[in-house]
Amino acid sequence: MGLFSKSKSATGPYKDESRNLIYELLFCDDLEFYKLHTSDKKVSPWTTLFADAPNRKELQKLIMDENTESRVKLLAYKKLQLAGEPIEEKELLGVIVEVAMEEGLDVLASFRDGTARYINHSEKMIIWETTDQTSSEITAQLFRDSANIVQRIGPWNKPRLPHPSKGKVRLTFLVSDGIYFGEGEINSFFNDPLAAPALQSATALMQYLTSKA
Q1: Does 65 share its domain with 98?
Q2: pTM, whole model, 2 decimals?
Q3: What confidence score (pLDDT) does residue 79 get?
Q4: How many CA atoms lie within 13 A of 90 on its CB side?
Q5: Distance from C-alpha of 179 to C-alpha of 153, rounded to nearest angstrom
Q6: Is the separation of the CB atoms in 209 and 128 below 8 Å?
Q7: Reduced to 3 states, what is the DSSP secondary structure of residue 47?
């Protein structure tokens, strides 16, 4: 996506600044941060996303295009929100699972278009830009399990929280109308009737990605 600029440091859970940058970009909730870290701002879709005056028609075109990346759709929805446009459709476009262990933070981000990012607590990273039958099936199940949670909770209307503290697991859902999330102790959350299916699907995806890597 043309992310090469280093005009601003990213702080976060990792020692490597580049890992913290990737971590922050996963959430697709800060257009200015994306703008700072995008080199080719004068090409589509960035010309639409970074325009001073929002072009509602072009933003809607990005959202409706089946070929638009999930992260770009999330940024387009964010641009419309900032312009005061009501977001009537609740579209789940990303699921992020964070597990804060003694050794560090494991993060899996899965997007509706089948792409994914995995940052291990050792700071090794997998960038999954393709899809195959197995990854598509696991991703579809993860999104079904996650949709069941989103239907039962409301959006978080405050600034996004820092990464979870040690011993905690957090499920963050990137939805067209904002961020939804749930958090709990690792031992209890993996046994929670609502959260457990999504966590199990996320674990299956992580294991598959690491096996392919």
Answers
A1: no
A2: 0.94
A3: 97
A4: 13
A5: 11
A6: yes
A7: helix
The domain total for the chain is 2
Q: From residue 60, give the alpha-carbon distance in Å to each of 90, 99, 177.
A: 14, 35, 14
Assess if residue 96 is contained within a domain. Answer: yes
Compute the distance between CA of residue 211 and CA of residue 81 in angstroms, rounded to an integer. Answer: 39
- Rg (C-alpha) for the chain, rounded Å, is 17
The CA distance from 207 to 115, in Å, is 15
Range of the domain at 64: 17-82
Q: In the numeric block, which tokens belong to residue 61?
A: 């075109």
Spatial distance between the Cα atoms of 72 and 210, rounded to a whole number of angstroms: 25
Q: Are residues 157 and 127 in the same domain?
A: yes
Q: What is the pLDDT of residues 22-63, one digit of tens each?
A: 999 999 999 999 999 998 889 999 999 999 999 999 999 999
Instruction: Determine the Cα–Cα distance for residues 90 and 125; give it in Å rounded to an integer.
Output: 30
Residue 13 identity (one-letter amino acid): P
* Token pair of 44 as six digits: 């589509």
Per-residue model confidence (pLDDT) at position 202: 98
